[in-house]
Amino acid sequence: MKTLKQLGLPAAIAAFTASAAAAQEAPGLDDKINQAFADLTGPFVSFIFAPFPGTGFPWIVGWLVIAATVFTLYFAFVQLRFFSHAISLVKGDYSDPNDAGEVSHFQALATALSGTVGLGNIAGVAVAVGIGGPGATFWMIVAGLLGMASKFTECTLGVKYRNEYDDGTVSGGPMYYMSKGFDELGLPGGKILAVLFSIFCILGALGGGNMFQANQAHQQIAGITGDYPGWITGLVFAAIVFMVIVGGLKSIARVTEKVVPFMGVMYVAAALVIIIMHADQIGWAFGQIFAGAFTGLGVAGGMVGALIQGFRRAAFSNEAGVGSAAIAHSAVRTKEPITEGFVSLLEPFIDTVVICTMTALVIIITQQLIVDPDTGKYMLNEAGNAIATVDGNSGVSLTSAAFGSAFSWFPYVLAIAVVLFAFSTMISWSYYGLKAWTYLFGEGQTKELVFKVIFCIFVVIGAAANLGPVIDFSDAAIFAMAVVNVFALYFLMKVVRQELASYSERLKSGEIRKFGH
Amino acid sequence: MTTKIVIGLDGTETGERAIAFAKDLAKRIGTCELLVAYVIEWSPYTFQTPEENAQRHKRREEEVDLATTRIVTPAVDALKAAGFEAHGIVRHGDVAETLNSITVENGGVQIVVGRASADGFKKRLFGSSTQNLVMHADVPVTVVN
């Protein structure tokens, strides 16, 4: 904390708090922050979500889908062929006992998952189904299955090209495979891509990894305690995040890291119970999902609307192709970088194919979306931009209402889960953002501190802003990472193919085998 | 033929009693090698933050170094000074499982450990490492009080 005092940070924070408190007198500080934020980020958001000329289909969604399809085909459906091998790796079947004490495959997977499983699975799915209808679920699952190949590619490269420092610590991620990988292949422009990626990663960390989380956490707390200004939640959250990432208060992070997986299991278990309670409607729900996927069932934007929403929310939730997981996975010290790729392909499966589908099924099966009894199609809300829901819920409140219709107490558990998920995602993304920051500006305590303080300030802004601009900016920033990352992956995927061929051969010949067998 | 005895240390005074017993046993047996083992409790299934993962290798090296210099090397040196053939080993893992693996890998015929000092609640819930070792070890285990 000595360094903080030297930098005069407490004074800055006090000044910020005081000005925020003073502004509370004049109503609408949240509105002002919101408007300024929307104005500032508008052009960036518009560019990222610009449709293909003459269509309503955002080019960025096409970019991700094409990439995931290319990787799936290029690696000959690696996500299916090596699925069970990935599970064996996570179980530790192939781990050398002499490496005990290093980061295990399970730990790398759990850490990466704690950064992705969260609000995307709860609020994001509700947004997708609320706008795109049940059909969005189908496209979300397709995106999840295809995205497994993207994740495999980026995480293999993340480990292969990471930096290992003399003190034993590691730094890895797309910025490292872009610069080192391109150099190795004699390709130009790797460093430029790395810098671009790092800039977008910082924005993504501040957006989806921070503001969106703070925003939704506030919505949840305000939903229970009654409405109050978002910046108050923001300040509390910012203080806790500050204590963890700057003050080194690891105990809070450790507790969260332990509670979050428990919450995740509880969430899936509750969803399963609700689905079983409505067992007679499972067939109908899947019917809605399939019919909606190809016909739109009257939702805004029709089939394309369902497809866009499905892909968009899946990408936001599982982050396949975004490059964030490559940062998380690069900490594993394995002799075979590709093993980390195999393990990482489980992430989109767990995150999207399992958890997101659960959320969507619960929303559909508990009939939160209002159907017109005359036409059998979904009714649109007054604005005409989403499906009308019971009580007009959207986002996380739609999921909360769906679970609450079966268990009245569940919204409280969900609120706690959302807050914890939000917090653990923030901690993960503060690290991703920090790695990008140090790539740009170099390692060093003061430089790291500057980023961490900026990160905390954005917690307050995120909690105060409205969902609309925050979710748009969050998506845009994260998708911007994917633009650069996928571009680099196309050039580097042949490296992964060589690794895959060599590994497969050695696995077949028995050179790579389970320990103790 | 040399008989190998594994001494499991836990960094407390119970380890001293285990060493004393093993020395006595080795004297009686005659040609005997003592393998001093220290297992750092660790599970591959815990949850960590990305930052902890990035620093894990460094921490592991520090943990091994600390256990080697503070616990294992002094014990091995003392045994050698007393005229015994002794070696040391430090490893991460589940204490009972890893002690057993070390013994099997090195051809040990017996494990000597001090009585566990786990606190009440944890001991009741999961059993102590010593209890687990006694129940699951592939070789005879002597627990020294």
How would you describe this protein?
The complex is a heterodimer of chains A (517) and B (145). Chain A has one domain (89-509): Amino acid/polyamine transporter I (Up-down Bundle), CATH 1.20.1740.10. Chain A is 74% helix and 1% strand. Chain A has helices spanning 2-6, 9-25, 29-48, 59-74, 78-81, 83-91, 105-116, 119-132, 135-160, 174-185, 190-225, 230-245, 250-277, 282-295, 302-318, 324-329, 337-344, 346-365, 396-404, 410-441, 445-464, 467-509, and strands at 163-164, 170-171. In chain A, strands 1-2 form a two-stranded antiparallel sheet. In chain A, a hairpin with a 5-residue loop joins β1 and β2. Chain B has 145 residues and is an alpha/beta fold. Chain B has a single domain (3-118, 138-144), classed as HUPs (Rossmann fold, 3-Layer(aba) Sandwich). Chain B is 52% helix and 24% strand. Chain B has five helices and five strands; from the N terminus they run βαβαβαβααβ. In chain B, α3 packs across α5. The longest helix of chain B is centred in the middle third of the chain and has 32 residues, at 50-81. The two termini of chain B are 30 Å apart.
